[in-house]
Batch of 3 targets.
Target 1
Amino acid sequence: MNDPFMVAGQWFDGDLTAQQFDELCEWLNADVVHAQQFAALSLLEVQLRESLVLDERAARQAAIDKIPSAPSYRSGWPSRWNWINDERTVTLIIAGLVVTIIVLTLDLIKLPAVREADRVPAPSRHDYVARLVDMRNAHWKEQEGRADPVIGDDLLSGQLLDLAAGAVELRFDDGARVVLHGPCQFQIEGRRSGRLIQGSLAVLVTKPQNQFIVETALARVTDLGTEFGVAATDQFTDVIVRDGVVSIDWTVAGGNARRTLRAGEFIRLERNDSGEVQEVADQLPPAIAWQVRSPRPIASFKSNSLHNYRVVPAGFGEGAVSHTDREYRWIGVSEEGIPSYLVGGDYVQTAMNDKTNGKLKIELGIAVEADLYLLVTQHPESPPAWVREMFTPTGDVLATRLSDLLDGAKDAPGSLNYDVWRHRVQAGQSVTLLAPQDGKIDKIGAYGIVVVPIEE
Amino acid sequence: MNSASFTNLWVPAQPIVSSYVFSSVRNSHDAEDLLQEIASAAFNDFAEFDQSRSFVAWVLGIAKYRLLTYYRSQSAQKMVFDESTLANLASAHEHLETQASPRRYALRKCLQRVDGKKRQVLQWRYAEDRSVASIAEQLNATPNAVSMMLYKSRKFLLQCIQRTVAAMEHPE
């Protein structure tokens, strides 16, 4: 057989002979990895069509917008000619969108939002400047006529995010990562800027040449390639720098004031009774004190699993998502909830599909002296010998519950209890974790991993 | 479980299901119809969905059944996957469950690195749905040369996406 990747491409191009098709089938069935490569290629095909069709439509709309004598075109609706052309070119993307629209139409609650969106001109692709990439226990305040943002949503310049609780992560097109902690009102302003109306956020800028600006009611915070946190209301602004340099500008009676902060430094600005903004000598502002936990204890993560694992910095707590492939969340089994020493730790969302993977191997690199906690299913056959040798039982118990049951009974069906085991790790040390079990025993789930730095 | 719950699960699952259907059916109009049938069947049967399971896996199960039924109705069509291959592909797509969104984001970044003739060929092939032969004619090249160009672009994009997603999940 020729290069199977070439043949697979020809399959998608509709350009395959019967003999090549047979060879393709043989290759697909020879190894599970081949089928996964083919699936990845197929997803690329679907997403390429979607992405390039959107590019073409945006380019066409931009060209139309430049025609001064065609006001009707600027309404955002395609001309008849354009629509015919689009019909021919967007076959696949329409399939996806039509199905989604059918589903949304069935959802009567959301129907008004869809209709409202239909009345206004569709935004150009270039108006999207960021994307919502992660949510942790997030609840949005209701915004009339607009559905709650979900992971994967592209976010518009000017869009207001009103987070009631939990945390969400945004990725801006120019590279900045912004984590909002609810309650928080944040307005996206552009590819490199946003306005914090109220609440707190953390910013990580990985490209020093792409400055990111946070505006608050009192000040303008400009990063110079760094990691920093801001908390604000209309009466105060707190800024703390975790890494790099940040400059803060604000208006005073005689003109402008500026401070430059370096790693570990912070500032609090307050509005006084006469309405002027002034710097206040203070202790570490409590509104953002929680952000001072640097460096993060989990420095690296590797596994031999075929499934997805996700490291969540400082994310462990009541209701934290337990696995990447299930709708379960961690909860405490006692009235006190999750033991306080675990709350706020880095943790790993593991793959439940690995619960019967006897060859699982995970390597964690730990940056600072920390306690590594392994959450292991309660079961007569559990934990395996390697856990008993390496870890010490704490006597505490956690559980996972289905998301919809979080507010329900603690002994809801379909849930598992987990014992908490502890192992002290020195800074710079690497730890190897093995499979949760050796054989295929029912009722043993994938374990949980939490890492908490030792407080000095 | 209500329709809002279904919508919340369907929207992120839809690219994976689309990928599965379009990888298994050559006729794009038939694939569109099948995708709509699958969404409708999943919605109607949503009460039977066990929330301790993966939603994507559940919908892919429905899709596999619909694809087999479709294949039976297309007995004259020779190039159709057998049941075992369809099951392998469903399992492989289940593996992509959490990756559609980061991969879409990575693709946008990686496409910025494809320009010139390669970008033009991608545009013709995907945005305008033109055949390899038609593109070859436009470029005054052989179909094999166009296939090779597409092969290289796809391979580059897949590798770039893989690296970008890995960097997003485990940043330095």
Target 2
Amino acid sequence: MKILVTDQDGAEHELEGLDGWRTMEVIRDWGLNIKAECGGACSCATCHVYVAEPWFSQLPPPSDDEEDLLYSTLDKKPNSRLSCQILLNDDLDGMQVTLAESARRDP
Amino acid sequence: MSQNEIVTDAVIIGAGPVGLFAVFELGLLDIKCHLIDILDRPGGQCAELYPEKPIYDIPGFPMVTGQGLTDNLLQQIAPFGAQFHYNRMVNTLEKLPDGTFRLTTDADEVFLCKVVVIAAGGGSFQPKRPPVEGIEAFENKSVFYAVRKMDDFRDQDLVIVGGGDSALDWTLNLQPIVRSLTLVHRRDAFKAAPASVNKMKELVMAGKINFLLGQIGKLDGVDGQIDHVHITMDSGDLPVPATRLLPFFGLTMKLGPVADWGLELNDNLIAVDTEKFQSSIPGIFAIGDINHYPGKLKLILSGFHEAALMAQAAKATISPGERVVFQYTTSSTKLQKKLGVV
């Protein structure tokens, strides 16, 4: 399965996704600009992405913790999610996500 | 200039799991340690980011929480009497002409030591800035991310934002001395000690504090002094009169002053060799998440291994020429004496 990731500079990347992986892990593994400082513990908000439809509506709703963290970012949009909370499966094949500015690694 | 001078064998920067285990490995070789950490307690990311979350890849522990691992490490290193310095950031690190090191902290201390071990993980934890336009202009004047002196809040109209332990603890601690206090959180559920939540609710019931369900919006004020904090609620925008604001939005990690110490870096990580885990400056070691070498895996267990090898090299630096006999804790009565078990 594949996911399509647009980075903060607008470049598009087609990444090989693996069933059961977290979207954050795939993006990080391919070396894109994602800080993901808590490593997937849903404790920071530095793997923030925007998920395009129709995939956004297919995702299980965010937990209260994830919502709190999304509200702590400056660039939250209605289709914001933390990519560490999006577990990949075949239904999400082709999913398009865009990395948020707030997910950038420190310069 | 500072005047609190501390002389020791080793200074460990960072009291996360790897920094704590370094005390053990150095201690077996009779090296005395002081640890410095920016947090107010040991554990590093384990304590700050995931105290309750289970970790499954610590050898010998099918499952342990971040806090559990920290508590066990503290028990394991207790025999070595390391000294801890919390709530401090190391600002400068320099090598003196005689080959020893001088460190200074933002708490005005000077440490003089023979080796330095940087176990600073992802860098130093800094408060997260809330998503409020223009908040920078008010920072450290009327908006604070930590309470240094409680007296700065006496007789003030205080707004606290957040739903975790920091927000709840300061609500309870500051309520008796402020003029008014409003706690704001975006939902009616808190990630804090239940006893604190209950006490806070009692204060609300008694009319001693206000609780608002909403989010922080814009700030009004002049010259860095706020006069109103706007709260966005379901019912609309509510300007709350306020002279102090304490937003608690968690912490984030920044490399911080480490970048200025003249160490060879590799993408914000300290480059080390894999025999000694020594940086480009002899006598300064880097272990755990903050270092980089070919094949590096950011795992706690890798940091433990790095600590063991680092300690051998640190011993050779501190006691050059001394033969170090490699011993096992299972069989060496010498080591067992150090551990206080015989």
Target 3
Amino acid sequence: MTEPDLTLPTTGYRTPHNELIRGARAALPVLLGFIPFALVLGAQASHKGLGVTEVAMMTGLNFGGGSEFAAIELWTSPPLLLVIVAMTLLVNSRHLLMGATLAPHLSHLPLRKALPSLFFMCDESWAMGLADAQQRGRFSLAYFLGVSLCLWLIWVSFTALGAVIGPALGDLRSYGFDMAFAAVFLVLLRGMWRGVHAAVPWLFSLVTAGLFHLLIPGGWYVLAGTCAGLVSAYLWART
Amino acid sequence: MIDHLTLLTIVAMAMVTYLTRVLGFIALRNRVMSPMVHEVLQAAPGCVLIAVIAPTFTSGHPADLIALALTLFAATRLPILPVVLIAVLATATLRWLSAS
């Protein structure tokens, strides 16, 4: 008589493969916001004289939409390397904080796993990974990677496609796709909602970022808003 | 043939961006956070997300602001896919109405 094999996954058991698929599926609604922006970015880049290979290289190696739009906006021939790199640093400085918030969730992993995984961290995958951890009580690296890889693949392929078909597209943003980003972010924020008290720093962040965006040109508003929000969170926590 | 300076700029961008992704993590890895730091970091995700979309709130076009209000309302009660669809359709419709 054979013993039942206890190593077999029981129903509902989460294998890394299942988690990867679950993440990729969760990313699908987000793609609605990604694809039009990717096409627009590719089209703008080709307008500035970048070829398909260069566009795919930029979006594949950098993988940060905001900084790529800024770089293309500033792009000249030849490109001003230092200006573009400084702008990239400014727009992506929020990643420093995002990486820091992942530290408690990833610190049990060896660096050879954690560091490559962080390459794929973007606003959406980071927020979705954290929201999932809050819901299930545990951060799932495979879920995070499922979201991230899906978004990365679509971002790179559709920016490249945008560079090819760009001139035929016109401005997709005017059709309302730009609101898709706000929609995704607002749903993510709802998932983080912990009552009015905890949301006060968000209001400071929003107001400061809005004012900076109106009054100060360049990419300062994200950094300024985030800092204002954190300072208010700090003061709020002390009282 | 890719121009050298273009290639160099792209690689430099990629390196800077990757550093922003790992440095915050490396700085706080294996470190016990004080309750204060923990509390402040808990507010960070929301602050980042709302700062990124702040320009949508300050656009000043009535059509966009009404669409944003509808999106915000939808986001408080519906799953992500319907919210995104409502956002795009409302924005497109209201812009079309305000332009005609």
